[in-house]
């Protein structure tokens, strides 16, 4: 449907643009001296035809562009949804090959190629038709001379531009690969930032990141040079081909007239638009979209987590065995074709309602055993039988950005609805914009009690409605572990798997959790507990001792000999808690927290979201200046601006030269036929007003903004990535180019406008300026505001992807895929609504600007009939052609400056964010001052003194440590309940020689 609709609309635009030069040629010919027999009605009819075609072209073109962008947006949304749904099905082996940064790069960079491809892709097959038709029309006017320009344009557009587009596609693939590497590296550094700081590895990792960025920038520079070459070739292609055609036409003995020159100019403008601009852009968009499709295809072909059926028990005997786990001669591995399997020859049988403890040293296979039961780790041999639903508490707590309550209630409401309705507990249906589940009040508060969270909820400022950041950065390690445990316990299941939840809590809390939760509350459920706490083994019904992927011992506590217990104790005592969750370095930064909505159960005040790093509003000028200073030297920017000014002057001078050449040809031919009817004064009085008309056509672009030219040049900036995002290095060149060219046109208008002597033109120009400014301030401000909100609407989507990747086993074990997908779709819809409003507002603004340009074209066209009373004797056809052709150029070009300015202002939000990150308050100097360096034999004693010590995680919140005064003598062993806080103080120690 899209193909046929676009083909029909494109054919209409195609025929209108082909018919336009023909009607224009007839209108210009009307003013030739050889057409005196034509009456004024012919001129009025031809002028009306020129205006009507222009208006129809504007009316159809913008609706077509909006429809194409909407199709591209839908394709991008579909690909994003497909990528996310694939993520939830990835096997653990595939997850090892996928980083959160790579997924963000997919959704922020790769899929956006479809937005551009949807607009230009059809021009690949439209271009040959347009070129053949355009050549036929040219051949009717200038004969064989048309071949000169067409061959030059074809040589420049098809082989050269095609090769550049293909090369750009290859470079795009390299850039994507190196960007993935850099993003993955940064993700790993952020995850381990605390370790890096503790060991003072900052400089080493800075060099690693600099090297990765340098490798990426090298390819980006090459791609930018190619893009610059492409832009440079397209600028003067039209004029070069036109001059070759006219010179060939004159050398063949023909005479130039205004109708031939400017009809040829319009035809070459149309052909160049399709052949030298749209066609190379379409090839480039196709190449980049093909690269994105290949990368997405590689991701979509990754191995999925196989769904193995769970035994459905229908008879009475089988119902009684619900909660049974049985593995027979089972082998499992994380990688295909390994040297040795991760688990080997596993034989276990756990009856329903039993408590099984799994112990062993690090890397012995305890977690792998749980992952096998969860079907995250595939079997390579043997069989497994599981009866009943499974709930799982991971070793590293997984928390998402929401309230504490919503993190506990993570549940697919559709799977639990029947059970809840048949119970006699108090129930409430929790429903808000982002979260929906069946809330069992009695069970919830029982779980909170047995998981020792009541005291924490009293300490939280908003109770269980307190917001937690991504991965629970606002909570301690013990609180995260207990909330993660409460989620698993709250779920109605037959089998509960606990992967060492007691290691992150204090001894007395761990004892409470084991007694109240595992032994009493879940006493009728099957429980498997991975633990390092040997004191709990005596309470277990079954003990499994793992070693190197095998079961060393399987039995009860009484079956364990004293020597076996001693060996286990020594092994566990020597282990380092390498898997223990640490407080991430990102806890230093204020999280951007969004609430999942309000709950109907608590009437307490709702927590407020934290502010973003930057405020919404006008981007300060200093951001633009600093961006340019960081990107290039001042002398290079001055040279670039100088070259663009010279190029614009050359282009304008060439247009005037063609006009003068044509006028001389007309005057020479007229003198040879009818004699000299005019003197030089008449020629001057005729050319001066038309010269003023051309300058006024340029000066109409001045009405875009009342700001100075320097302000517009400062606005020519773009973002650096993303990224993440988004491939901003590709965008910056084109947008800077268009805005600077637009600004140069304004400069030329400021200089040339006073030369005008036509009062009517000045009045109309000022009226257009007022109208244009009103439109700029009323209409363009809307997309600029949406540009401000677009990054804020997109950020939650990326955060949701990262959180889902981190907690994938928990999501699967809770059967929460549908809820998580629904949340992702909702976040995507919120971002899409903002993005679509940007598209609509931009196209609407462009449409009204083109309407103003068409009105101006009508004024310019009809003024020759009105003010000259249709008397062609007072007008040279070349001047008519120059004025009308320049006015026609405004249609479509006038909107470039304001629209690009809006996009730059929107994308500068990312630049300002990067700059603000660069300006964050830094730690002390990496090295101590020479005068304060400690001696070589320092420290002689391990003495630590705290004097009036305060510690804040957030300056806006109360201090965590208040007026701490402690003196720890050398050799003392100290146990701290608030161990995280103390360690965080030690991280920030600055050596001053004392």
Automatic annotation (TrEMBL):
Q: Which UniProt keywords apply?
A: ATP-binding, Membrane, Nucleotide-binding, Transmembrane, Transmembrane helix, Transport
UniProt-listed InterPro entries:
AAA+_ATPase, ABC1_TM_dom, ABC1_TM_sf, ABC_transporter-like_ATP-bd, ABC_transporter-like_CS, ABC_transporter_C-like, ABCC_6TM_D1, P-loop_NTPase
The protein's predominant localisation is membrane
The ABC transmembrane type-1 domain covers 21-275, 738-794
Q: Per its UniProt record, what Pfam families does this chain match? A: ABC_membrane (PF00664), ABC_tran (PF00005)
Compartmental location: Membrane
| Domain ABC transporter residue range list | 328-573
| Protein's name according to its UniProt entry | Multidrug resistance-associated protein lethal(2)03659
């Amino acid at each position: 449907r899209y193909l046929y609709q676009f083909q029909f609309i494109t054919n209409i635009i195609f025929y209108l643009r082909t018919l336009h030069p023909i009607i224009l040629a007839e209108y210009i010919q009307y003013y030739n001296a050889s057409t005196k027999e034509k009456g004024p009605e012919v001129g009025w009819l031809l002028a009306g035809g020129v205006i009507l075609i222009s208006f129809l072209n504007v009316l159809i073109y913008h609706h077509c562009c909006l429809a194409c962008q909407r199709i591209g947006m839908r394709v991008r949304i579909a690909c994003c949804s497909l990528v996310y749904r694939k993520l939830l099905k990835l096997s653990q082996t595939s997850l090892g090959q996928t980083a959160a940064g790579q997924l963000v790069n997919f959704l922020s960079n790769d899929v956006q190629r479809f937005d551009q491809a949807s607009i230009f892709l059809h021009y690949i097959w439209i271009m040959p038709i347009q070129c053949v038709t355009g050549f036929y029309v040219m051949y009717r006017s200038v004969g064989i001379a048309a071949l000169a320009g067409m061959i030059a344009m074809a040589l420049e557009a098809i082989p050269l531009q095609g090769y550049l587009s293909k090369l750009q596609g290859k470079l795009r693939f390299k850039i994507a690969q190196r960007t993935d590497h850099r993003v993955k590296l940064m993700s790993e550094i952020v995850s381990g930032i605390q370790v890096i700081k503790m060991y003072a590895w900052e400089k080493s990792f800075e060099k690693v990141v600099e090297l990765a960025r340098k490798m990426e920038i090298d390819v980006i520079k090459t791609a930018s040079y190619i893009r610059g070459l492409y832009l440079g070739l397209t600028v003067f292609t039209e004029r070069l081909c036109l001059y070759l055609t006219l010179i060939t036409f004159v050398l063949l003995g023909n005479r130039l007239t205004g109708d031939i020159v400017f009809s040829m100019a319009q035809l070459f403008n149309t052909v160049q638009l399709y052949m030298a601009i749209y066609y190379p852009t379409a090839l480039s968009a196709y190449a980049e979209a093909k690269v994105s499709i290949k990368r997405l295809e590689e991701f979509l072909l990754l191995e999925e987590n196989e769904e193995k059926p769970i035994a459905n028990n229908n008879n009475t005997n089988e119902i009684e065995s619900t909660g049974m786990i049985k593995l027979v001669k089972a082998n499992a591995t994380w990688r295909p074709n390994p040297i040795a399997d991760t688990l080997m020859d596993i034989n276990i049988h756990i009856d329903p309602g039993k408590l099984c403890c799994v112990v062993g040293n690090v890397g012995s296979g305890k977690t792998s055993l749980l992952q096998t039961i969860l079907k995250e780790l595939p079997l390579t041999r043997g069989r497994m039988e599981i009866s009943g639903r499974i709930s799982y508490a991971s070793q590293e707590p997984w928390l998402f950005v929401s309230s504490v309550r919503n993190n506990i209630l993570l549940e697919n409401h559709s799977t639990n609805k029947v059970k809840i309705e048949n119970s006699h507990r108090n129930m409430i249906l929790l429903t808000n914009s982002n979260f929906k589940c069946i809330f069992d009040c009695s069970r919830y508060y029982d779980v909170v009690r047995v998981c020792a969270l009541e005291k924490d909820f009293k300490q939280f400022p908003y109770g269980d409605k307190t917001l937690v950041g991504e991965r629970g950065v606002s909570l301690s390690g013990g609180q995260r572990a207990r909330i993660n445990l409460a989620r698993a316990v709250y779920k109605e299941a037959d089998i509960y798997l606990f992967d060492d939840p007691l290691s992150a809590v204090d001894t007395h809390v761990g004892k409470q959790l084991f007694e109240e939760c595992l032994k009493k509350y879940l006493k009728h459920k099957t429980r498997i507990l991975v633990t390092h706490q040997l004191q709990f083994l005596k309470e277990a019904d079954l003990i499994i001792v793992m070693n190197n992927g095998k079961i060393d011992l399987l039995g009860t506590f009484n079956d364990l000999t004293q020597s076996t217990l001693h060996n286990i104790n020594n092994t566990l005592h020597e282990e380092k808690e390498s898997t223990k969750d640490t407080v991430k370095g990102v806890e230093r930064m204020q999280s951007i927290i969004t609430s999942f909505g309000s709950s109907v159960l608590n009437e307490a005040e709702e927590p407020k979201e934290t502010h973003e790093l930057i405020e919404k509003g006008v981007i300060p000028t200093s951001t633009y200046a600093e961006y340019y200073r960081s990107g290039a030297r001042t002398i290079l920017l001055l040279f670039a601006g100088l070259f663009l000014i010279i190029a614009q002057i050359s282009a304008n001078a060439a247009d005037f030269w063609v006009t003068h050449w044509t006028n001389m040809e007309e005057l020479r031919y007229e003198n040879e036929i009818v004699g000299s009817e005019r003197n030089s004064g008449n020629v001057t009085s005729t050319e001066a007003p038309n010269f003023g008309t051309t300058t006024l056509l340029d000066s109409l672009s001045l009405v875009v903004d009342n700001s100075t030219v320097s302000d517009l040049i400062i606005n020519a900036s773009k973002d650096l990535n993303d990224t993440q995002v988004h491939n901003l290095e590709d965008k910056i060149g084109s947008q800077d180019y268009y805005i600077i060219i637009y600004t140069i046109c304004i400069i030329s208008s400021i200089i040339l406008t006073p030369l005008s002597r036509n009062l009517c033109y000045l009045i109309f120009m000022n009226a257009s300026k007022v109208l244009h400014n009103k439109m700029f301030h009323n209409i363009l401000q809307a997309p600029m505001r949406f540009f401000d909100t677009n990054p804020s609407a997109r950020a939650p989507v990326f955060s949701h992807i990262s959180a889902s990747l981190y907690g994938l086993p928990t999501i699967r074990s809770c059967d929460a895929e549908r809820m998580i997908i629904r949340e992702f779709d909702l976040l995507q819809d919120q971002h899409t609504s903002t993005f679509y409003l940007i598209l609509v507002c931009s196209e609407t603004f462009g449409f009204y600007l083109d309407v103003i340009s068409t009105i101006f074209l009508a004024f310019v066209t009809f003024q020759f009939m009105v003010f000259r009373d249709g008397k062609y004797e007072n007008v040279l056809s070349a001047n008519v052609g120059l004025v009308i052709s320049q006015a026609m150029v405004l249609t479509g070009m006038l909107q470039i400056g304001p629209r690009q300015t809006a996009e730059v202002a929107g994308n500068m939000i990312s630049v300002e964010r990067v700059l603000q990150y660069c300006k964050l308050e830094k730690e002390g100097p990496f090295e101590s001052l020479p005068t304060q360096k400690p001696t070589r034999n320092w420290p002689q004693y391990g003495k630590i003194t705290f004097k009036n010590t305060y510690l804040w995680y957030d300056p806006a919140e109360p201090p965590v440590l208040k007026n701490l005064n402690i003196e720890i003598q050398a050799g003392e062993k100290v146990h701290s309940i608030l161990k995280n806080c103390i360690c965080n103080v030690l991280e920030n120690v600055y050596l001053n020689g004392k």
